[in-house]
Design goal:
Blueprint lengths: L1 E5 L5 H13 L7 E5 L12 E2 L14 E3 H10 L7 H12 L12 H23 L3 E3 L6 E5 L7 H11 L5 E4 L3 E5 L4 E5 L12 H9 L7 H12 L34 H10 L25 E5 L4 H6 L6 H13 L7 E4 L6 E4 L2 E4 L4 H18 L3 E5 L1 H8 L5 H4 L3 E4 L3 E6 L2 H6 L3 H24 L1 E3 L1
Parallel strand pairs: 1-2, 1-3, 6-7, 10-11, 10-14, 14-16
Antiparallel strand pairs: 4-17, 5-6, 7-8, 8-9, 12-13, 15-16
Helix pairs in contact: 2-4, 3-4, 8-11, 10-15, 11-12
Bound molecules: uracil.
């Protein structure tokens, strides 16, 4: 029997490394217990051994592969509060080793349970994004904004980057019983949660904030520790993998509703599409026919991002169906990418144009429009969880990287994004259509195909080393 102690409730890397090692050493799921630092004493029956000390290093040993979307699923499901999740995911990994198509069996409980957990986590993250309301506090010094939220799952670090981008201009704190997230305009940091007993009554948020965080009052050891954490935990990259290291305390498993069948995975995307259909975040909706949302399977591991729908797309309601879409289809086929398996979307979801007689002339979206629309791109990413995001053109690159990004310097190579994702920057297919010189166009087209071949390589693998 092995006891695996993870660093935190959200220690995906620790789980992944341990699970891989165990599976490579043929340790059956029933011979493993999973726990989290600080929760082990009452879990450890006599005679338990700790892994990995009893398992030799696997670095020189052969590997095995599992479908890429298993990792995407595990990364989200691990944020569920159910204490059984680590074991459930290991059992699924264990079975996937010999049964690659297992994830397609939607009635197998080893598949449906983690899938339902991931769905529940995503719904909770969406609830947080939709319901967190900041209140202004600390007016007499510098304005600060705070909100109280009680997450169902361990989603605070998962959603913090969303709030950092959405409310980039204001310093905020989200207080929760698990962990508190803070944004100072540059970086997200995390401090221990505030117990439910101290939950601020309606209208008393400021008091709670002052008690825990206001600098003048930081005289108790706990408050000083909080301040130290605030200073020391400040990070440039908001997605701290082990952000909840401080949560501590035992978290009891919650009974989960019976999960007979996999909840429809497209629900989130459908809900998102429906919500985006009514988007009024910038004025472009006024003249466009409709929102043109992304399309493709939710399980896609590649996401293609264009600029905005064109005339044809605006009328049809589908991305990349006009001339640029035909050019893209041709290049994808030549590169060996199956469009049916990728998710195709745009940085801006409404057509921007000026009317010229009977035609509507495409206009490049401006930064405020790209910013206003970025929430949809972010939420598409959080539902699809792609491994690779291909930014086609400058507008797409601006959305993917959250800042103006020159194509020339970044083109054609894999660039790290948060969350273990990669980005690939290339030109927009419309650029190729506009090149007047046939020779230059052929050359540029070939470069475009070559860029897409990088995505093809990833799609062909379609399986990842665990
Ligand atoms: N250009 C884009 O960027 N997106 C489309 O959907 C069509 C043309």
């Amino acid at each position: 029997m092995y006891l695996i102690i993870l660093d935190s409730e959200t220690d995906f890397d620790g789980w992944r490394t341990a699970a891989r090692t165990l599976a490579l050493h043929h340790v059956a799921p029933e011979d493993v217990r999973w726990s989290v630092q600080g929760q082990t004493s009452d879990l450890m029956p006599p005679g338990l051994a700790e892994a990995p000390p009893h398992l030799p290093s696997t670095e020189t040993e052969s590997s095995f592969s599992v479908p890429a979307h298993f990792l995407a699923l595990a990364r989200v499901a691990i944020l569920h509060r159910d204490g059984e999740r680590f074991a459930l995911l290991y059992r699924l990994l264990w079975r996937l080793k010999v049964d690659h198509d297992l994830l397609d069996r939607m009635t197998d409980p080893d598949v449906t349970q983690p899938a339902a957990m991931a769905d529940s986590v995503r719904r909770d993250a969406q609830r947080m994004r939709e319901t967190v309301r900041f209140r202004e506090i600390g007016r007499e010094q510098k304005a600060h904004y705070a909100a109280w939220f009680e997450p169902e799952h361990h989603i605070v670090a998962f959603t913090a980057p969303f709030f950092a981008r959405r409310f980039a201009d204001m310093p905020w704190s989200i207080l929760t019983p698990d962990v508190c997230a803070h944004w100072d305009g540059h970086a997200v940091s995390f401090t221990p949660g505030i117990s439910r007993a101290e939950r601020p009554a309606p209208g008393r948020l400021e008091e709670t904030w002052r008690r825990h965080f206001q600098p003048r009052r930081m005289s108790t050891p706990a408050a000083q520790a909080n301040r130290r954490n605030l200073q020391e935990a400040s990070i440039l990259e908001p997605l701290l993998a082990d952000a909840e290291r401080w949560t501590g305390g035992r978290i009891a498993p919650r009974p989960e509703a019976p999960m007979a069948a996999r909840t429809k995975p497209a629900d989130d995307l459908d809900a998102l599409r429906e919500e985006a259909a009514h988007c009024r975040a910038c004025p472009l909706y006024k003249d466009a026919t409709q929102t043109v949302f992304g399309e493709g399977p939710q399980s896609a591991n590649i996401m293609l991002v264009g600029e905005q729908p064109g005339d044809k797309e605006d009328l049809a309601g589908h991305p990349f169906v006009g001339p640029a879409g035909q050019m893209l289809d041709r290049a994808l086929t030549e590169a060996g990418v199956d469009r049916k398996k990728v998710y195709v979307t745009n940085a801006v979801k409404h057509f921007k144009f000026v009317p010229r007689g009977k035609i509507r002339l495409h206009q490049k979206p401006a930064t405020p429009e790209i910013r206003a629309c970025r929430q949809w791109y972010e939420r598409e990413v959080s539902v699809i969880q792609p491994d690779l995001i291909v930014a086609m053109g400058a507008t797409a690159a601006q959305s993917v990287f959250g800042k103006i990004t020159p194509i020339g310097k970044t083109r054609g190579r894999l660039i790290d994004l948060p969350d273990d994702r990669k980005a690939l920057v290339t030109v927009h297919p419309s650029y190729l259509l506009r090149l007047p010189d046939p020779k230059a166009r052929a050359l540029e087209y070939q470069r475009f195909v070559d860029d897409l071949k990088i995505a093809a390589g990833l799609q062909k693998k379609s399986a990842h080393a665990a």
